[in-house]
Every structure is written in C-alpha cells, then in structure tokens.
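When time allows, look over one protein, given below as sequence and tokens. The question is which stretches look regular and which look disordered:
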Amino acid sequence: MDVTDKPIILSSHAKEQCAYRGCTELEVKETIRSVPWKPAELNRRECRKEFPFNSEWNGKRFATKHVRPIFAEEPDRLVVVTVYVYYA
C-alpha cells in the first residue's frame, strides 16, 4: 500500500490534543498529506504546516498557526499519537 493511500487515524489522545490546542482533524490530515515528513523520536514521523489563523487564542491575536502531528507509520495506516500547535 502506498503511503499516500493509507488512512490516517487519530488516537484518542491526539483528538483531545486537537481540541485542547486549537486545531481540527482535517488540518492534521492535510498537514500529513501535503508536506514532507521528518524522523521523530521512537521511530515515529512528524511534519509541520502553517495555516492562516487571523484570530484570538488564549486572549491574544495571531496571524498564523502551525500544526505539527507526531505519527506512527503502520503497514496499513498512519496513526497520529499527538498533535502540537504553535501560534505566531
């Protein structure tokens, strides 16, 4: 199975982190599908994509947010284990 064809599954922790840190599952999946991956700890992968934001987060206004999923590549799927979001 080609990597681009593998389904992307978010763990319950990753879903919680999306809500807590202010991103959507769609943004996580778009990030994984559209930018190059880099090696991460524990034989996992990571990537990072900037999205326009132009809104408030925790009482401060930001122009962009960066979504950084950490995920494991399995034979038949990609499993997102956590998600980091940075605002700028």
Notes: The chain is about 25% helix and 50% strand. The first helix runs from residue 12 to 21.
